[in-house]
Amino acid sequence: MMMRILLILLILPLSVLTKAGDSVILTGKAFEKPQYLPVDEAFMLTASRLDESIRLHWLVQPGYYLYRDRMKFPGFKNMPKLPTGKRKFDEIFGDVEVYYDELVIKLHDSSRSALNSSKIDIIYQGCAEAGLCYPPQKREIDLNTLQLKSKNVQE
Fold it and tell me: Residue 64 falls within a domain, yes or no?
């Protein structure tokens, strides 16, 4: 009888953990490496024309974020107005502002340095909460077609 009680006391907590599905030890997830999305899936960027400006829209996947202060817009006289991000302590950059879920920025044509150019460049950087930081990304936007092209950051 004592053996049955002991066995029940051992099995009951395990069945609760298994039922909840949250036990990383029982499910084996403690030993799995995190799976990271390709950068263009983690931070899906699109460009559209809106009056005399270009609207940039990033759709940021759950578990990922973009750095506010890592946004750069070479070829623009002034930094565009960026929305306030959420404060976060980042192991690489310390106290930072980041964007979760989505980010929308308007780039006004009149603030471009070279108005005759049909292309603009943007640079941004983001990370996964699970620990991967992507290198800075540079995208060239063709203002005629609004197509995006990946470029080397040093270009």
Answer: yes
Q: How far, in Å, are 28, 122, 138 from residue 108 at the CA level? A: 51, 14, 19
Compute how many other C-beta atoms are within 10 angstroms of the C-beta atom of residue 61. Answer: 15
In a domain, 48, yes or no: yes
Domain enclosing residue 77, as ranges: 39-151
In a domain, 3, yes or no: no
pTM over 0.90: no
Residues across the chain? 155
Identify the CATH number of the domain in which residue 71 sits.
2.60.40.1250
Collapsing DSSP to helix, strand or coil, 95 comes out as strand
Reduced to 3 states (helix: H, G, I; strand: E, B; else coil), residue 146 is: coil
In a domain, 57, yes or no: yes
Domain count, the chain: 1
pLDDT in tens for each of the 155 residues of the chain? 555 544 444 444 444 444 444 544 555 555 677 799 999 999 999 999 988 899 999 999 999 999 999 999 998 888 899 999 999 998 878 999 999 999 999 998 888 877 668 899 999 999 999 989 999 999 999 988 999 999 887 75
What three-state secondary structure class fits 58?
strand
